Each structure stands twice: as C-alpha cells, then as structure tokens.
Amino acid sequence: MELQDLKNDWINNYPKPLIIAGPCSAESETQMLETARRIKESGADVPVFRAGIWKPRTKPNGFEGVGVIGLNWLKKVKEEYGFKTATEVANANHVFAALEADVDILWIGARSTVNPFTVQEIAVALRGTEKTVLVKNPVNPDLALWIGAMERLLGQGITNIGAIHRGFSSYQKTKYRNIPNWQIAIDFKNQFPNIPMIVDPSHICGNRTGLASVAQEALNVGYHGAMIETHCTPDEAWSDAAQQITPEILAELIANLQTRNADDAEYEDKLGQHRTLISDIDFQLIQLLADRMKISEKIGTVKKENNIAIFQPDRWKVITEYAAMKADETGMSKDFIEKVFKAIHEESIEVQNSVMINK
User: Fold this and answer.
1) Predicted TM-score of the model (pTM)
2) 3-state secondary structure of 322
3) Sign (positive/negative) of CA torsion 12, 15, 17, 18?
4) What are phi and psi of 108, to 5 degrees?
5) Residue-number span of the structural domain to which 331 is assigned
6) 248 and 289 belong to one structural domain
7) Residues 43 and 19 occupy one common structural domain
8) Between 24 and 59, whose confidence is greater?
9) What Gene3D superfamilies would the database entry show (predicted)?
10) What angle, rounded to 10 degrees, do the helices at 211-220 and 265-305 form?
11) Same domain flag for 288 and 148
C-alpha cells in the first residue's frame, strides 16, 4: 500500500473543522481539569483535548514536561469531560506509555520528524496500532522528510495518518515564530489530498495576535482543522506562554472561523491556494526589501566616512542592465522590472541620504 491509497476515514468521525485544543504542557491535575472544564463550558466545538506530557526543549535544564504522571491527568479529562485526548511522543517509551493510557491521537513533533532514526523507532513501537498518528512538518523546509516519516508509519501497518503544518524555522527575524512557507504545505496537500492536514497556528505565530488569521488562511486552502494551544491562565504557563489563549477566547476564535459551502469548495480551494501563495511571496518580498535597505544603510555609512556622493551613475547603469537581463530570462516586461528596480534604488538613496544627514 502507498500513502496515496490510504482512506483515512478517521477524520470523518470529527466535526469540520477539527479543533484540537489544550495547554502546551500538562503542569498539574488542577490546571488540566480547569482548562478542560472551561473549554467545555465555553461552548467551543472542541472534540480533542491536547497536552504536552514530554516537552523537547532547545536547551537543557528547562521544563521538559511532567512525564508519565501527566497521562493520568489526560485520562481524567477524558473521563470527566468526554474529550478525546492527544499528546506528542518522541521515543518508544513515550509510545508504550501513551498507548497504555489509551491516548486517542498521538503526534510526532517537528524535532523528531527531522530524524529518520527517531521516526523509525516510534513507528516500530506503534506497529499495527489503530490509533490516529499525526506528523508535524520537520523544523527545516524539507518535504521529503515529511513524506518519509509517514511512509515509515505506513510501513509498520499504521493507516490512520494525518499531517500537522506548524511552520518552518528561519534564521531571519519575522513576525512569525516559524514561517508558514505555505508552498511546501500546499505541495504536500496537492500530492496527498487523502491525508488530512491540520494547521498549528500557535507554533507558526508564537503569539496570540495572529492565531485567528493563520487558522482561517489554512481553512481557506482546504485544511481539515487546527491545533490551538489553550490554557486556563496563559500568562502563567510553564512553556510557550505568549502563544496560548484562554478557553473563552478559543471559543470566540472558533465561532468566527469561516468554512466553505460544498458547492463552491473546489473553486474556493483553488482560489484560496493561489491567494495564500501570493500572500506568502509578498511577505518574503517585504522581508527581502527590508534586508536590502539595511545593507543600503551600511553603504550610506561607508560613503559618509569616505566623503563619497550617494548617487553613482555607473552603479545605476549596472542595475538597469541587470534588470533588463533578468526580465528577458523570466519573460516579464522590461518596463515593469525597470520600474520596480527604480523604486528600490530611489528608496535606497533616501535611506543613504538619511544616514548622511543624521549620523
């Protein structure tokens, strides 16, 4: 059997969109039950309660989860409030403990997905399970690793599989904690439309302000749901406090999410994908332009220190010739490319002039 052949009927057992919510980390029984109670009382349509039992951290000596005891708290959440439960597993021992605790949905985290040896260990431990297993994209933008992780699961007879898009790490400082890089996720979705895709706006944003827009953007391109970190007292959370929201805000966010009618689903799906990709490219363009202007500022400093004029005709000639060449290579209008480069060059002169005047 190939990934393309999976039916993944498990997703039909949940409402659309499927919302998975709960704290980043299990901290105490009280915190878990309080969060679950308020999610239930808020009226939010949340069928699955999530919590991190083991927390892989970038640096040692930080909070790395409460461990197995937290699984008992997840069981109480299920018993008292009727939620399905979900948690991350990162090695075979985690898998055995989670299965013994009857956790309904397991997911493989981004740090694990990037390592085929780790994924294989987890897959072997999960061999033949009928539990749903979700795979987060690897931290680096590598589609093959993401697909390979699912193929390893399938190789062990695991057939209830889904994907989680949590964004990709970048050395650049942006408004995102992990840049969405929608193109990679949409490439995966186009290649495997039968594999349900869940967005993780909490890890993409790294803050509370952008959660709703990222979740909606994902639904616009046909994602099946969202995993949203929710805490009874977010500001006091032991991990990732800035990106967690209260159950009441979660309920409001879910209520405002827009889903498509079945009749226009195909049209909206295609249009939404194109618009999302345009937004993603626009964001990258703005970031690149900002980086370019920072370099222009440094050039302005060098020119001032050496008493050199800002405008250099020879340099402008090189820029226009380069623009014309790139226009030919890409099949775009020379006039359009020249206008773009002229605007960039003019802004660069303004930046350098500001350095000359103010420094």
Assistant:
1) 0.76
2) helix
3) negative
4) -100, 125
5) 269-358
6) no
7) yes
8) 24
9) Aldolase class I, Chorismate mutase
10) 130
11) no
